[in-house]
Write a structure and sequence with these properties.
2 copies of one chain form a homodimer. The first copy, chain A, folds into 2 domains: about 60-80 and about 95-260; about 285-305 and about 325-500, no CATH class. Chain A is about 70% helix and about 0% strand. Chain A has helices at about 15-20, 30-40, 60-75, 75-80, 95-125, 130-145, 150-155, 160-190, 195-200, 205-225, 230-260, 265-275, 285-310, 315-320, 325-330, 330-355, 365-380, 380-390, 395-425, 425-430, 440-465, 470-485, 485-505, 520-525; strands at about 55, 130. In chain A, α3 (about 60-75) runs antiparallel to α5 (about 95-125), α16 (about 330-355) runs parallel beside α22 and α21 (about 440-465) packs antiparallel against α22 (about 470-485). The longest helix of chain A has about 35 residues, at about 95-125. The radius of gyration of chain A is 28 Å and the shape is globular. At the A-B interface, α3, α6, α7, α13 and α15 of A face α3, α6, α7, α13 and α15 of B. Chains A, B: InterPro entries: TMEM175-like (IPR010617).
Chain lengths: ~525, ~525
């Protein structure tokens, strides 16, 4: 059954062989777009083969890396949620400043780790299979990445001390070095490369290009580390470039395309730059990373509850007269808030899950919007902590409810934006079944619009009825899950009502009955104009 | 291309059709073993199909559930690692008792959540596809499970108060109720069932059997909840049955088989009970759950470090004279310990990954051993915390190093046991390529034996050289990763030495050279006997 390709001595089961029927090395080389299109997903796995030579499918290692990276991305929300506000203290300027700094640190860390994750995704689109050495190198890479949040928060805490910047840059350089090692190793043993690149005639060019991609961030950081000794602002500028350059250049390119019209770049250039800029992210890895973030955010809350909210036996005897029910009742609002928060995270995951069922591949814009949505999802424990603090500090309730509504709104509106962005290029991004609108489109739209609308309504309601803000917020959190359950029903109802209204406004001419005469009943209902 | 089966109006791409060439409903029904064998893995996914009707592949939902469950399983290690021991306090009896209780709570929680996870796995081997309602029901199920650790620790903190037991039982009952709802819903819309069960002629029998399986734990817990009002010990007994009954009955069955000889039970019984007792766990889900545990354990440490170990600017000015280097140096041992701990978790994951590359399916015994291995892996943050406490409390160093060695030893020896257990039934459990021994077997053996040996050597060394215990432990942690990298080389060297020694002991007769004459060179090396 195993057909071997005469061109590259590879089994003909590979995508490139199946789709084109020819080996790329034998016939004309595939365009880089095709190459990337084929290497977009997790590499195909054959369980038995290759095990003998120690070569393994990279699927499980990538899932594990995704899980690690998603946890690391969300870790800096902990200092935010654990910010101590003593009961006497007002929600005043100094606390607000501290919180704002920590939130900024969290968001930046999230972006930085996401950039590292995207680089990792790109790297393992090139490296298709792994062996023991690569698995160990990947573990080393992961360990270096776990230090990123720490060095970053060190940098922010001591913005004027070169050491913080220096350590952060060293961390990025170490990641780059390990990734360069991985690239070098994989190109030294070409059977580890993804089949499309292995079969390509431009092996060395790819190699140089990928190495350049992997090392451009570390090179900028090296410059930043050197500048940190003389003139710190330049360092910050260089580091900002590492994070934002890909997006800025993409945006500039897009604007130029719109203004000047699309100019086909020379073939040589295409090969070099499409790899970076137009490459779609692997849908599977976007899903795995998002799942990790949702899972850790949903459970960060129960981690806290399990540790802090089991009442102390001595405390129960002294404060509550031995009544466990009373002791648990005292932390009742915390459980209510946990329920609301888990439901929100869970349902946002559900909307994300529904969304990605329809998606075929994720463009870079969708990746960025998804990252922003996830970053705000990571802020949900903050919303939870704000809500559960009600029980202790009744004042400032209004502001806290509003912050929570705003976080939920932002998290859900960016998810909505992912869908909108996918609709701009339906042929590239959507599954064929959902490209042409219809009921599934309407349902998807309703699912994604539910949370933005609910949080917006809650926000407006708190403005009108300030005194009931907590009650409104909790009602919103409890009602939304039921709205999801009844969504299909509600949608059908809404469409029927809409059609009914439409029918009243522009009545259709009576359809001829089976006997050829006008249908009297519908004729009676819709008055002739 | 789409062939539709005339028997069950399902696409003929399904496993059952492909392997037998016939629809089970048309021909003789498959044996339950075959059914289970086929439904063992994640259901096959076709991306486009079914999207229109709202029916979805369950793959991503299951990964998300696995991620959530693995985090919930490991959560109770936090109270253990965060046990406050003030610097003046000796590692005395009261602390030891507190720690022992918390460790017991952690281990029991881990087992309970694993039982819930196994039930979830079994349930979604029956339910092959999902729709929106099922996804939402599954989220509800997950949320109920997140309360298990909390109610369990409440129960342990107040062993004599019925409320703790009552809440725990209510939690189990709620999980059972949601799962029963899922079963009912799936059997009401049979297109959601796994194809083997949908095509089976014994639909209602399966339905009753699965419902019975799902509800037996909750039924026992209901009894326990009622007994908690009269006589608490009976409640504990009933709850212990929920966790241990499947394993005990399996062990009893195995012993009976050995003693009496295997008696083929009547066909009616097989169908009812094999589902429960002999069913192999889905390999993919075992991997996903294990990955989740490894990922969360590896990062629990960095969560702590990121939150607690960023020095306070005021502190740096006052205590370290403004020198950030000195301040970071003070928490240096923590970083060293983190490095060691991450390396240990990462390499244990690596060994697990290598092990499961060779595994085709996991028996129940392997599942149990894997759970135990994971439970001790979850204990590694404890080992870390013990190690990082050295810097502050130099006394009791010896005991702490020994505890760490013991945890690492237990985690790795149970992993080794998984492999041994797989070797007992190689035809069922291993990939065909590795069933017959050889170099890959030796390498696997070496990989799995590395950590047990290293921790044992470190333990013995601390007994002999008590004064250098910390140095020994750190040396072990740093040396093991390099040993993994050089493992293939070392193994080849060891085999060569072994062969050399064997050659000296029983020299082989000289092989005839290409010319037919005895090969003089090898003849010179191996003296004639």
């Amino acid at each position: 059954m195993m057909l071997v390709c005469p061109g590259c001595a590879q089994p003909r089961l590979l995508q490139a062989h199946v789709t084109t029927g020819q080996c790329p090395t034998m016939s004309r080389p595939q365009t880089p777009e095709q190459v990337l299109d084929n290497s977009r997903d997790y590499p195909p796995c054959k369980t038995d083969e290759d095990v003998g030579e120690g070569i393994q499918c990279s699927h499980r290692m990538l899932s594990f890396s995704d899980a690690l990276l998603s946890i690391i991305a969300t870790v800096m929300i902990l200092p935010v949620t654990h910010t101590k506000i003593s009961p006497e203290q007002q929600f005043d300027k100094s606390i607000q400043k501290l919180l704002a700094t920590r939130i900024a640190v969290y968001l930046m860390t999230f972006l930085i780790v996401t950039v590292a994750w995207a680089a990792h995704t790109r790297l393992f689109q090139v490296v298709g299979k792994i062996d023991d050495t690569l698995a160990l190198l990947n573990l080393a890479c992961m360990m270096t990445i776990t230090f990123l949040p720490y060095t970053f928060s060190l940098m922010v805490t001591f913005p004027d001390v070169p050491l913080g910047i220096f350590l952060f840059c060293m961390c990025v350089i170490a990641i780059g070095a390990v990734q360069a090692l991985i690239v070098g190793y994989a190109f030294h043993f070409p059977h580890l490369l993804s089949p499309q690149i292995r079969c390509s005639a431009h092996g060395t060019r790819y190699w140089r290009h990928i190495l350049c991609l992997v090392l451009q961030g570390p090179a900028l950081c090296l410059a930043a580390a050197i500048f940190s000794l003389f003139f710190i602002p330049v360092s910050y500028l260089l580091m900002a470039m590492v994070v934002f350059l890909p997006y800025v250049s993409k945006a500039v390119g897009w604007c130029k395309d719109r203004l000047v019209g699309h100019v086909e770049p020379p073939a040589h250039q295409v090969e070099f730059f499409t790899f970076d800029l137009h490459e779609p992210l692997s849908k599977e890895r976007v899903e795995a990373f998002s799942d990790g973030v949702y899972a850790i955010v949903a459970t960060l809350l129960i981690l806290d509850i399990c540790e802090d909210n089991v009442p102390d036996p001595k405390d129960v005897t002294e404060r509550f007269g031995g009544s466990l029910v009373a002791a648990l009742g005292a932390s009742g609002p915390r459980f209510l808030a946990y329920f609301g928060s888990f439901a929100t995270v869970g349902l946002l995951w559900f909307a994300h899950h529904s969304l990605f069922l329809h998606v075929r591949k994720a463009t870079r814009a969708m990746g960025l919007l998804n990252t922003l949505a996830l970053a705000f999802v990571g802020g949900l424990p903050l919303a939870y902590q704000q809500t559960s603090a009600f029980a202790r500090q009744p004042h400032d309730e209004l502001e806290r409810v509003r912050v929570s509504c705003a976080i939920i709104f932002l998290a859900s509106i960016f998810q909505f934006a992912v869908w909108t962005s996918a609709l701009l290029q339906p042929v590239d991004t959507l599954q064929p079944a959902v490209r042409f609108g219809g009921a599934e489109h309407a349902l998807m739209f309703a699912k994604l619009a539910l949370y933005p609308c609910a949080s917006l309504v809650a926000f407006v309601a708190t403005c009108l009825l300030g005194g009931f803000s907590t009650a409104i917020f909790h009602a919103m959190q409890v009602a939304t899950p039921f709205a999801f359950l009844l969504l299909r029903l509600l949608l059908r109802l809404a469409l029927a009502v809409l059609r009914g209204l439409q029918g009243l406004a522009w009545p259709v001419p009576p359809a001829p009955g089976p006997t050829g005469e006008p249908d009297m009943q519908s004729g009676l209902l819709s008055a002739p104009c």
